[in-house]
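Review form for a predicted model. The reviewer records the input and the model, then writes brief findings.
Reviewer: anonymous (R2)
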Amino acid sequence: MQKRPLGRTGLQVGRISLGTMTFGEQNTEDEAHRQLDRAVERGVDLLDTAELYPIPPKAETQGATERFIGSWLRQGVNRERVLVATKVVGRSDSRWFRDDESKPRLDRRNIEEAVDKSLARLGIETIDLYQVHWPDRPTSGFGAVPTRWKSPAPDADEVPIEETLEALAGLVQSGKVRHVGLSNESGWGTMRFLAASERGEGPRVQSIQNAYNLLNRTFETALAEIALREDVGLLAYSPLAQGFLTGKYANGALPAGSRKALFDRQQRYERPGAAEAVDAYVRLAAEFDLHPATFANAFVINQPFVTATILGATSVEQLDRSLDAEDVRWTDEMQAAVDAVHQRVGNPAP
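Model under review:
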C-alpha cells in the first residue's frame, strides 16, 4: 500500500486505514478480529477508534470497540504491525463517560480520565495518535448547511483551546500519547491549535479527521489549504457517506442489517438533492467499470491533502471492496468526470 507522511511526526502510514465504530454493535468480537486480520493482511497499518464507540453511542456498549481491538492486539505481533489512534469526546451531555457522572469537557481532568480508560481497554502503554473528537465550543458542524453559519453564540464557560492543548502536552510528556490530532474541527480552530503550539503551549496537531466524500467536499473550501501548507493531513471519515454512495439505498431500498434499517440516523445524507447526486456517482462508477464503493474510496485517497481514508465495514466482503481502491489507477479523466458532477450537484450532504 502507498504510504503518506502523518503530519510532521516522521511516521508514514498507508493511505487506507480502518475505522472500527461498528465493533461492539453491528459486529461481534470475532467479526471484528476477522476484519482486523484482513485489513492488516492487505496493508492497513493505522486503526482508528474512540472512547465514544461503538455507534450509536450508548452507556451499555460504550468502550466495547476499544476492548475488541485490545483483545486482538494481544494476539502475538499485532501491536508491532499497526499504529493505534483513538479519541476523547468533546463537550457532551452524556454523563456516562465519566466516573463522577459529570458532563464531559476538554479540560485536564476529563482528558486524563479518558486516556487512562482508553489505554486500559486497548491494553497498551502508549496511544500513537490521540484526537479531540469534536470541539468544546459550539461549532457549525455535524451536518450544518455549508453556505450559512449555524451555531449558537460562544459559551461563556467553553474550555479554551490553549487549556486543552496544555492537557494534551501532559499526556505526551508522560508517554501515554505519542502525537495529537483533531476531528470535526474548523479552519479557525485548526489554526488556533497550530498557533498555540508555535508559541510553545503544547504539541503540534498532526492530523484532522473530518467527513469527506463525493457528497461532501466542504473540506476543500478552507481546510485543504491548511492541510497542505501546515502538514495537518486529512484522515477522511465517511468516504461512502455511511453507505449511501454504494447505491444500496437507491429508490427507497432498505437492506436488512444496514445502518439505516437498524438505527435510522442517516438524515445527514437524505437532504434534497442527495439521492440524485448518489445516482450520478453510482452511474459514473459503472462507466469506469468499478464498484461504487471502490470508486468512492479511490476518489478520496487520490486527493493531495488526504493522508488516509478511514474505511468502515460490517463484513470482510464490504471491507475488500473498499480496500480495492488501492489498486485503482486514478486518472485525470476520472477526476474531471467527478468534478463535472460536483459542479452540478454541489455538496448536498455536508
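Findings: The chain is about 35% helix and 15% strand.
Further findings: The chain has a mean pLDDT of 94.
Recommendation: see findings above.
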